[in-house]
């Protein structure tokens, strides 16, 4: 059980970094994934839609993000220099954002659900189980 939560948390952290990339790609984001000024100071997970449909979309997105993460893990380990590793990391992040968007969510929504799940261990356990069933 602890291993599953650790893997899920690592995947969340991976996409958290992506939100800055997604925002920069859309032209209106802030570097580093900082929340817009109107959201700064808000409680993490506040006002997040955790309906069955959103959770279902999140699980689909999470499974796809994991596939991208696994695909790039070995390639990153085999990188011969920092420049190559940075390029691969950027490519992986872009593919993760696309995988999330292909499920109907965006990176910001995905990250909001991920943070809310970290504050709800029971729902997190359900999400982990759902993700394992879909892999």
UniProtKB/TrEMBL annotation:
Give the record's keywords alphabetically: Signal
Among its keywords, does the record have Signal?
yes
Has keyword Signal?
A: yes
Pfam families, sorted: DUF4168
- Disordered: where is this region? 23-50
Q: Which residues form the DUF4168 domain?
A: 52-127
Q: Which residues form the signal peptide?
A: 1-24
State the superkingdom.
Bacteria
Protein name (Swiss-Prot/TrEMBL) = DUF4168 domain-containing protein
């Amino acid at each position: 059980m602890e291993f599953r939560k650790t893997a899920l948390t690592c995947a969340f952290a991976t996409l958290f970094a992506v939100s800055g990339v997604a925002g920069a790609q859309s032209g209106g984001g802030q570097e580093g994934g900082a929340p817009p000024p109107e959201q700064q100071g808000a409680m993490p997970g506040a006002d997040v839609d955790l309906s069955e449909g959103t959770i279902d979309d999140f699980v689909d997105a999470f499974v796809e993000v994991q596939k991208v993460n696994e695909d790039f893990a070995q390639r990153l380990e085999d990188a011969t220099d920092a420049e190559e590793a940075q390029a691969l990391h950027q490519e992986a992040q872009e593919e993760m954002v696309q995988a999330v968007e292909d499920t109907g969510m965006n990176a910001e929504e995905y990250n909001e659900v991920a943070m809310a799940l970290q504050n709800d261990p029971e729902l997190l356990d359900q999400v982990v189980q759902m993700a394992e069933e879909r892999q």
